[in-house]
């Protein structure tokens, strides 16, 4: 029997493959601008929402802190934190800086689509502040209503009557009620921050929604939902690899299908890892030993033994259908593992292990066959 053995790839080869897969399958990041007066709590809000990517040194104590535009970014989101309007700066100057920034990020150049600002969080300090003419000007003239949310910050220090008055003033400035949200820098504690996540999620373009949901730390359920919603894209990745495998299996040249089949499966695994945001380190720890075990067995030899009624054709080649179903089953196996990894990460649990379990493989094999009917 011809053995379809999996050449063991080096960590470096995997990293290169994953890098490429991230480019092709990684989710587009949303760009969010946060703008408002100095000291209104912009940087604190970002920290409450994104957690560790903001250094606590970036939060002001008594003097304006953020200079120009700081950019906080991860694989999933990019947030521009603007410096607030300071004493000595005229409102015109402040408005004009904001206008220039928006203009330079709303270029009609499709190749710069990555730089567009998808959403603006405009902050107005809750306790003790007023809605100023400058706030109104920015809200009405600079930012478009479709992508603006007004955050009334430091809500922890506001009385109920004060909240209502402030909300009314922002409504009078032309902002829809559901886009006015009371926020606070209390980590995990403020209901408003969760509302801000939900409202932002709704307003972002579809392509960026998943990345945003995953990036934020406030709404765990939203993050989990984003992981489960990746199943559709995962199916597409698996289907592409299956099509390739069927094409390879359809021209059986004994022995020589093996490297091709393995290459298409390797690409599929890297694409799924990119889709589920599996970092290189996690991949090395969990996946490489699994793949090594798989190489230690052999695809045609050992896997097929577990599948009743399936054998190899003359010369050891496997049929197109079997090549396809094996690839589909492997895709489901790996996808289910990556999904578990992504959920464990959200729940702050250690990464699960991926055992090489032939019975489990058989389950996925049957599941895949059933899904194809
Ligand atoms: N009570 C309370 N204080 C807050 C809250 N958010 C921020 N602060 C405080 O307000 C001050 C200013 O916060 P920053 O986050 O630096 O404000 P900023 O808008 O980024 O200021 P600039 O960078 O100067 O424009 C700090 O002392 C924060 O601790 C909040 O939700 N509640
Ligand atoms: Mg700041």
Shape: elongated
Helix fraction, binned, reads 40-55%
Structural domain tally? 2
CATH superfamily of the largest domain: P-loop containing nucleotide triphosphate hydrolases
Structural class: alpha/beta
Output the radius of gyration.
Answer: 26 Å
Number of helices: 14
Number of E-state strands: 6
| Mean of pLDDT | 81
Characterize the biggest β-sheet.
6 strands, mixed
- CATH architecture type of the largest domain: 3-Layer(aba) Sandwich
Q: Can you list the strand order of the major beta sheet?
A: 2-3-1-4-5-6
- Strand-and-helix sequence, N→C? HEHEEHEHEHEHHHHHHHHH
| Low-pLDDT windows of residues | 1-6
Structure write-up:
The protein is an alpha/beta fold. It folds into two domains: 11-25 and 230-372, no CATH class; 31-204, P-loop containing nucleotide triphosphate hydrolases (Rossmann fold, 3-Layer(aba) Sandwich). Helix content is 53%, strand content 9%. It has helices spanning 11-25, 42-50, 91-104, 133-142, 160-172, 191-203, 206-215, 220-228, 231-249, 257-275, 280-296, 299-305, 320-346, 358-372; strands at 31-36, 69-73, 78-82, 119-125, 148-153, 180-182. Strands 2-3-1-4-5-6 form a six-stranded mixed beta sheet, with helices on both faces. A hairpin with a 4-residue loop joins strand 2 and strand 3 (78-82). Helix 1 (11-25) packs across helix 10 (257-275) and helix 10 (257-275) runs parallel beside helix 13. 42% of the residues are buried. Mean pLDDT is 81; it is low at 1-6. Guanosine-5'-triphosphate binds at residues 38-44, 59-61, 64-66, 83-84, 153-154, 156-157, 184-185. Magnesium ion is lined by residues 42-43, 60, 65-66, 81.
């Amino acid at each position: 029997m011809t053995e379809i053995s999996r050449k063991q790839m080096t960590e470096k080869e995997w990293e290169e493959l994953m890098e490429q897969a991230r480019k092709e399958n990684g989710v587009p990041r949303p760009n969010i601008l946060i703008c408002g007066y100095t000291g209104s709590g912009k940087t604190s809000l970002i920290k409450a929402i994104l957690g560790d990517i903001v250094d606590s040194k970036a939060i002001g104590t008594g003097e304006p802190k953020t200079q120009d535009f700081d950019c906080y970014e991860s694989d999933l989101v990019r947030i521009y934190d603007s410096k607030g309007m300071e004493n000595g700066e005229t409102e015109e100057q402040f408005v004009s800086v904001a206008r220039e920034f928006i203009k330079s990020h709303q270029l009609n150049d499709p190749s710069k689509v990555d730089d567009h600002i998808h959403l603006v969080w405009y902050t107005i300090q809750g306790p003790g502040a007023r809605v100023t003419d400058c706030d109104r000007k920015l809200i009405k003239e600079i930012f478009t209503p479709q992508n603006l949310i007004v955050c009334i910050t430091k809500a922890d220090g506001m009385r109920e009557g004060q909240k209502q008055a402030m909300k009314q003033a922002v409504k009078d400035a032309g902002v829809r009620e559901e886009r006015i949200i009371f926020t606070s820098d209390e980590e995990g504690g403020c209901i408003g921050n969760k509302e801000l996540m939900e409202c932002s999620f709704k307003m972002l373009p579809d392509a960026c929604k998943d990345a945003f949901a995953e990036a934020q730390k406030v709404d765990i359920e939203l993050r989990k939902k984003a992981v489960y919603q990746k199943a559709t894209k995962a199916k597409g990745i698996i289907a592409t690899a299956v099509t390739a495998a069927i094409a390879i299996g359809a021209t059986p040249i004994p022995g020589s299908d093996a490297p091709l089949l393995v290459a298409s499966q390797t690409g599929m695994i890297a694409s799924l890892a990119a889709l589920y945001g599996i970092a290189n380190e996690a991949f090395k720890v969990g996946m490489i030993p699994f793949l090594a075990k798989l190489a230690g067995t052999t695809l045609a030899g050992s896997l097929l033994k577990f599948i009743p009624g399936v054998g190899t054709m003359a010369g050891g080649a496997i049929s197109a259908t079997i090549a396809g179903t094996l690839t589909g089953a492997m895709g489901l196996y790996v996808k289910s593992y990556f999904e578990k990894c992504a959920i464990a990460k959200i729940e702050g649990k250690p990464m699960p292990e991926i055992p090489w379990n032939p019975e489990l493989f058989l389950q996925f094999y049957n599941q895949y066959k059933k899904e194809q009917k």
